[in-house]
Hints:
By secondary structure, the chain is an alpha/beta fold. The protein has a single domain (2-120), classed as Nucleotidyltransferase, domain 5, CATH 3.30.420. Helices cover 30% and strands 26% of the residues. The chain has 4 helices and 6 strands, in the order ββββαβαβαα. The protein has helices at residues 45-54, 67-75, 88-96, 112-120; strands at residues 2-8, 11-12, 21-28, 31-39, 59-61, 79-81. Strands 1, 2, 3, 4, 5 and 6 form a 6-stranded mixed sheet that branches. α2 (67-75) links the parallel β5 and β6. The termini are far apart.
Amino acid sequence: xxxxxxxxxxxxxxxxxxxxxxxxxxxxxxxxxxxxxxxxxxxxxxxxxxxxxxxxxxxxxxxxxxxxxxxxxxxxxxxxxxxxxxxxxxxxxxxxxxxxxxxxxxxxxxxxxxxxxxxxxx
Length: 122
């Protein structure tokens, strides 16, 4: 499984739509087997989506993301986990240990349950 996290100064980039770097981690049996960083140079969201898909990303863990980008990535088969913040390494470890939805990793002011409800109704 390939997990992608947009990064900025070692942290999850606050807005995925404008992120310029993407950390890609290959994970097997909840253990990282490899990693690399790549640049997201294209500003067009549709082409960015194709780039992420072509990198073989299964799961995207990110901060804020536009509704259009979220839906386009999801339609491409990528599981998007938005509204996450913190140091990229801590976020990855929390995801692998099943603790990602702890309040310490939610973006400030984010109520995961409220976000989940609003996305389901739209």
